[in-house]
UniProtKB/TrEMBL annotation:
Protein name: (S)-2-haloacid dehalogenase
InterPro entries: HAD-like_sf, HAD-SF_hydro_IA, HAD_sf, PGP-like_dom2, S-2-haloacid_dehalogenase
Gene3D superfamilies: HAD superfamily/HAD-like, Putative phosphatase, domain 2
Keyword terms, alphabetized: Hydrolase
MF-aspect GO terms: hydrolase activity
Length: 197
């Protein structure tokens, strides 16, 4: 293994009370993906918030662009960098939005590759975003591990030939998801497992 890609929203960055609306937004994106339709994630988030009759939709969309990092995110990335691994992000957000979110969370300087679904024209777990990120790294899929806190992301990465890491945060993987190569309750646990390989 030569590189680690992290999912952004919900893995490195903490959505807090926006988590249910973000989950709905991703369900909308996945459904559209099955029909060959692609839209940017903020459009789905806005639609999900509208469907929930949420107040302050504009403010919520803005907050989603400035989510804080999980407390162990930077240390986890640095653990992997210290182990000689390259680190980057693969997000269902647009690449520019992902880079801006990383900068706002104080992680922009530690991740050298940011690939977004907009560049692939499809959302994860479609294989195209994973392939794009691997290509950006200049590596082969089996040299890259995707770390995610979403079971569907672990599944998509495995199906695209990447190694995988699962951030459990108290949840279990569905039995149909291939067993990840590394797992932990938090980012620190997954990073420690990967750094020891």
């Amino acid at each position: 293994m030569r590189a680690v890609l992290f999912d952004l929203n919900g893995t490195l960055l903490d959505p807090g009370d926006l988590a249910p609306a973000l989950a709905d937004a991703l369900h909308l994106a996945h459904a559209d993906g099955l029909t060959g339709t692609y839209r940017r994630l903020p459009e789905y988030l806005r639609a999900a918030l509208e469907a929930r009759d949420a107040e302050g939709i504009d403010a919520a969309v803005e907050r989603a662009a400035r989510m804080p990092a999980f407390g162990d995110a930077e240390a986890a990335v640095r653990t992997l960098l210290d182990a000689g691994l390259r680190c980057g992000v693969l997000t269902n957000s647009a690449a520019a939005a992902g880079r801006a979110a990383l900068d706002a969370a104080g992680l922009g300087d530690v991740l050298d590759v940011v690939a977004g679904s907009d560049e692939a024209g499809a959302h994860k777990p479609d294989p195209r975003p994973y392939r794009l990120a691997v290509e950006r790294l200049g590596l082969h899929a089996d040299e890259v591990c995707l770390v995610a806190a979403h079971w569907w992301d672990v599944l998509g990465a495995a199906r695209a030939g990447l190694r995988t890491g699962w951030v459990a945060r108290g949840r279990r993987l569905p039995s149909t998801v291939p067993e990840p190569g590394a797992r932990g309750e938090d980012l620190a646990g997954v990073a420690a497992a990967l750094a020891g390989r």
